[in-house]
Amino acid sequence: MASNKNQISERKKDHIDLCLSQDVNYNKTNGFEKYDFEHNAITEINFNSIDLSTTFFNRNINYPFLISCMTGGTEKADNINAQLAAAAEELNIPVGVGSQREFLESNSKNKSYTAVKSFAPNVPRLSNIGAAQVAVLKSADPIIKIIDQIEAAALVIHVNPLQELIQDEGQPSFKGLLKNIEMICGKIEFPVIVKEVGTGISKIAASKLLDAGIRGIDVAGSGGTSWSAVEMLRNNCSDTYFWNWGLPTSYCLRTVSELKEQREFLLVSSGGVNTADEIAKSIALGADIAASAKMLLRVLNEKGLDGVIELIQSLFEDVKKIMYLTGCSSVKELNKLKLIKKEDLY
Ligand SMILES: Cc1cc2nc3c(=O)[nH]c(=O)nc-3n(C[C@H](O)[C@H](O)[C@H](O)COP(=O)(O)O)c2cc1C
Hints:
CATH architecture: Alpha-Beta Barrel
Bound molecules: flavin mononucleotide
């Protein structure tokens, strides 16, 4: 168990180092540049009254934005998670932790997870575990344990088949996953969100997950961080075919949001969502909330806690400008806005 613990901790350190030092982005876009906003020349919105607040599973939050699940279980993550949590608390937005597998398997008292509880006591915190671990569960007890560890408001299960496939020590076998997701949804009182890690969730997959009882989907589409790229750099793989594998974020949103006609669920947009333009287009394409990962890690590394807070605030000042120019006074109205496909403009 000790070597497994060290292996997980080393891997997490590699992930942080590579995401900070290397170009691990997709060589294709998340597709938002294919859309434009319809300018509203007769907007009657008062810019200063635009309301960016929304709800996250009945909790009021200040912006439709969350700090995506990233890290934990390595010393290097202690400070990262404490600062991301402090940013979330200051901004009153949700924050996720990285996979809690290390805690589950070794019972370690690693501070990186509990730091999130200490530094973000008043905002929704998200627990995180991988599909490979969920697929082999015999009961929901381990899930309750990780939720308790950070007193989470929701559980995030990450599905990452491509990453497991490329990772040298990966476990590309999720047999039993859907059945166990259904079991967890039936046993715990907290909402379950399923997210990808950058390869996207299709409408068919989303539909099956909703049938199993989940209440949120984070499409985590392609166009941002490529996790096959990260794993390829870790194992010096020269065949880069899978570097760009995946469904673009905007495509996932457009198709998965069609399911909202029949059912209610929280739709999260992530996967290279790094600008005000991408956040606002995400919401117009059906997302309830946007999320970012690597960009925030990099800003934290370069500019510290204040840099992260200022970045998110300035992104939303620009989202407000977009809302003003498109005649939207609330997130709900932005959610109903129709985007123009650029091919129809010229
Ligand atoms: C350093 C780092 C570690 C990550 N670890 C996890 C993790 O443990 N669990 C998870 O669900 N996603 C993890 N992710 C994936 C992100 O949550 C996100 O889905 C992905 O990076 C795509 O978003 P981005 O383009 O904004 O980076 C991690 C991301 C980063 C940058």
